[in-house]
Amino acid sequence: MEERNIKHIAIAGNIGAGKTTLAEVLAKNFKWKPHYEDVENNPYLNDFYNDMPRWSFNLQIYFLHNRFKQIIEIKSGPETVVQDRTIYEDAFIFAPNLHAMGLMTTRDFENYTTLFNTINSLITPPDLLIYLRGSIPTLVGQIQKRGREYEENLRLDYLRRLNEYYENWISTYKEGKLLIIDVDNCNFIDNQEHLADVVSRVNAELYGLF
After folding, report:
1. Which CATH number fits the domain that encloses residue 149?
2. Interatomic CA distance for residues 142 and 177, integer angstroms
3. Would you say 62 and 81 are in contact if contact means Cβ atoms under 8 Å apart?
């Protein structure tokens, strides 16, 4: 695969895994354009954390539309983009988890899933999906470090359930190239050697020898 054909690198991982930080450093290293998850301007997020059953469907539709819009812009734009969180996570992790927890009705979940399937038939997967795998203690440590107010009430069992969904999804991911980084043993946030290793692995996946 030639460099000019690579348009879309996507980073997946549970809350607190380090997606935004990795997007930042990869964008800097490879001169890519970063696309971040816009948590500050999300009109549903605070309401969702206060009343999940009421706002779960609205929040997921908002995410789905935003991610779909991003993908269209990435594919039609001139730059290579690294994306913080993927459209797949909404569909295979967050929405099913909300439904399983009784926080999204079956009617809403089926409506959401049908919409995702339609969208998914129109999009191409990223050139490389990077999955940040982390244990609950690592994720909790990172969440506490960044101190976002709306994340203070996140329960451990919620993070655990999300991790299970992530692992199930990644074990069946066959859409394209996949790079798994274990953040328990790779602290690219604070350790320059670890970061250099991640950059090297990404480079090998995209531009290295087959």
Report:
1. 3.40.50.300
2. 27
3. no
Mean pLDDT of 13-33: 93
Q: Determine phi and psi for 100, rounding to 5 degrees.
A: -65, -35
Tokens of 10: 């996507």
Catalytic-labelled residue, pool 84, 90, 127, 182:
84
Strand pairing category for 128-133 and 33-35: unpaired
126 three-class SS: coil
What is the value of pTM for the model shown? Answer: 0.88
Can you tell me the distance from the alpha carbon of 6 to that of 4, in angstroms, rounded to the nearest whole number?
Answer: 6
Is 84 noted as a catalytic residue in this protein? yes
Enumerate long-range contacts of 99-106, CB under 8 Å, 24 or more apart. 100/161, 101/52, 101/161, 102/53, 103/52, 103/53, 103/56, 104/53, 104/56, 104/57, 104/60, 105/57
C-alpha pair distances (Å), 156 with each of 50, 142, 146, 169, 177: 17, 13, 17, 20, 31
Q: Which tokens belong to 156?
A: 């451990």
Domains identified in the chain, total number: 1
User: Domain span at residue 197?
Assistant: 3-207
87-100 tens-digit pLDDT: 999 999 999 999 99
- State the pLDDT at residue 151: 57
